[in-house]
Amino acid sequence: MNPADLPPQLTMRPRDFGLAALGALLIHPSEPTAAPEERFLREALAAAGGDDWRKHALASLDRDAALARARDAFGLSAIETLVLALVAAVEDDPLACRVIAWMQAPQASPRPALALLARAFAPLHESFSDTDPQRSETTTLHALAYGRAMRHGLLQSEEPNASRPLCETALRVPAPIAAALAGVACDWPGAPTPALWRVAAVPLLDTALADWARDLAAMPRSGLVIRSAAPHEARGLADALVRRLGAEPAWFAHADALPPGSEAWLVLTGRVPVFEIDGAPGTVATLPALAVYDGPALVVTGLDGGVRRDGPMADWRVPLPDAATRAALWHEALADDVLAAQAAQRYRAGYAQIGDHARLARLLGAGQATVDSLHRAALMTPSGRALDALAQPLSESVPDAALVASPQLRVELERIVQRCMQRETLHAGLGAAARTRACDGVRLLFTGGSGTGKSLAGQWLAQRLGLPVYRVDLAAMLSKWIGDTEKNLAELLARAEHADAILLFDEADTLFGKRTEVASANDRFANAQTNYLLQRIETHSGIVVLTSNSRARFDPAFARRLDFIVDFVAPDATARRSLWQAHLGEASDCSAADLNRLAALGDFAGGHVRNAVLAAAAQARARGARIAYADIADGLRAEYRKLGRSAPADL
Q1: CATH code for the domain in which residue 630 is found
Q2: Which of 103, 112, 482, 489 would you call most buried, defined as having the most Cβ atoms within 10 angstroms of its Cβ?
Q3: What's the distance, CA 509 to chain centroid?
């Protein structure tokens, strides 16, 4: 039968029957001079079947799919469902606003009060009696005020006010829920719009996403924590996973509580909640309890911290791409076989990091990536920039000629370079014991007196490997608040792993010093902090360079966790001559005899030699001449004075 030929009450929407219920309250006869609002309500009642509106109203609930879904999911009564339809109509129907305001005059509120709704829908209550309608109205009012629709946020008080009587409380439906009931897709107001990584077409990721989608779809109320050092990578994977489930993500910036009514919105829209959590060592975030929503929930977070939820919760730590995948991603990003091969061998970047790195390299290379622009871009990627709050990028180039080292020290440093270059494949082919608990990280300790070149050697190592290097800011790292130091270190190491950056800890014994006997709560906390730092640095998959003036300042348990301990001894006369030559270059008039005299008389390491040469250069340029021996001697005497020592008389 053509729908146009059906009686109107068989095609009317539940909201129309809500308006008819208001029209049924008009007990006085109609007059020719009646207000337009009155005529509208009487027409709605007539279309609904007049006194039979109640029977047709109940039948209409099954014809509205969204409303029926809300009713069935939340166990709403017929009265609550019709009230929900009417109150939702206020959000998008100006005529509904107008007639409700007219019915409630002189309040003139477009949102219906509980008293009006109770009067209109009391005839549907099972306790309704024509002889005592007021009792039924009271029962209906309380059933609405404390019913499931209010409890789950489908209906909400417009302005909760303890001084206002309950019967005068106006109700509203959150706009996203009203949109969902109308079949319109929209985001929850105030929800974040996060930056997403466009997931690359990688077989390993594609397989992982397919497996997780299958598992989550098979298990009600399941969840997955996606961990990555790069937030946009974790978000992109979460978005891709939700869409594989045939849904859209609903982003929430906080996991402690959902906005009122948002769970109902999730149920009505079929959205999948994705919570973004700032995890930290020793912290456990508890996801909000979802009483009705039984779909999956996702969490995107960093590499540390726990997540708790009612129901099964799996954990996916996004791995770094293997060598073959990394090479393919670099080739796709650079479209240059030779450069892509070099980048894949040099930069152990994450999936998202590779694309970020390549785009920056093209920007720095005027549209064409080069070896140099790739190296400079390594400090500027989002992962690299994320390190800036806790570490200082060291962009100065340190060539071989700038590092003056003894033959024995040079051999030791070359061994370190070889180990770092092979760290990804070093465990392959070895025995089971070597492969167990294998970690790609390399941990170095450089010890020696001040100015012996420890930090310079760390920068030289980064130059040889072509990796960015960051000096850790201990002032930003350390905190008086319990747990903050561990959180800062965990965040730093996670970001460095993703950026494949070398971390340089100057005066590292400040962080990794000896544990003490426990005599107070402070000692116990300090030891617990040291324990965490030792364990975390052992599992770090990047390169860490620690420097200290003395090996004895470190906890004995730390030595086992180090791959190399290199002693930078004070230079002998031959090494000091090389230091003077390396710092002066061709800018001085010093003879070979002068250099020999400086090496013999100036018993200093490279740091003091540098200071003396800079002072001599300033003095020489002030008079417009080349650096003379006398300028250097003056600078050297200043270094002796700084140390409280007397300069040699023959200087």
Answers
A1: 1.10.8.60
A2: 112
A3: 30
Amino acid in position 263: E
Please check whether residue 186 lies inside any domain of the structure.
no
Pair 420, 551 in one domain: yes
Asked if 171 and 244 sit in the same domain, the reply is no
Whether 83 and 119 share a structural domain: yes
- Report the DSSP beta bridge partners of residue 513: 554
Judge contact between 524 and 518, C-beta under 8 A: yes
**What is the rounded CA–CA span in Å between residue 345 and residue 329?**
12
Q: How far is CA 17 from CA 101, 538, 564, 620, in A?
A: 18, 69, 80, 97
3-state secondary structure 480-508: CCCCHHHHHHHHHHHHHHHHCCEEEECCC
Name the pairing type of β-strands 391-393 and 306-308.
unpaired
Q: What is the pLDDT of residues 332-389, one digit of tens each?
A: 999 888 999 888 888 888 888 888 889 999 999 988 999 888 888 877 776 666 677 7
Q: Which of the listed residues 338, 362, 377 is the one where a domain comes to its end?
A: 377
Considering the domain boundaries, does residue 37 fall inside one?
yes
Query: What confidence score (pLDDT) does residue 382 get?
Result: 66
Under 8 Å between Cβ of 360 and 381? yes
In a domain, 648, yes or no: no
Judge contact between 288 and 257, C-beta under 8 A.
Answer: yes
**Same domain membership, residue 126 and residue 163:** yes
Does residue 171 lie in a domain region?
A: yes
**What CATH number should be reported for the domain holding residue 468?**
3.40.50.300
| Beta-sheet strands, E only, within 253-358 | 272-276, 284-286, 297-301, 306-308, 313-317
DSSP state of 625: -
Domain co-membership, 505 together with 475: yes
Q: What is the pLDDT of residues 231-270, one digit of tens each?
A: 889 999 999 999 999 999 999 987 677 888 999 999 999 9
- Residue 217: partners with Cβ closer than 8 Å, 6 or more residues away: 245, 296
- Report the relative pairing of strands 249-252 and 391-393 from DSSP bridges: unpaired
- In sequence order, what are the residues at sequence separation of 6 or more whose Cβ sits closer than 8 angstroms to the Cβ of residue 447? 454, 547, 548, 549, 550, 551, 565, 566, 567, 568
Give the DSSP per-residue string, 423-462. Answer: TTTTTTTS-HHHHTT----EEEEEEESTTSSHHHHHHHHH
How far, in Å, CA of 336 to CA of 505, rounded?
36
Residue of 384, 240, 353, 247 whose CA lies nearest to 300:
240
Same domain, 239 and 348: no
As for how many domains the chain has, the answer is 5
Least confident residue range of 45-54, 355-364, 453-462, 550-559: 550-559
Same domain, 529 and 593: no
Contacts of 135 (CB under 8 A, 6+ apart): 127, 129
The β-bridge relationship of strands 442-448 and 564-568 is: parallel
Residue range(s) defining the domain that contains residue 509: 400-425+438-568
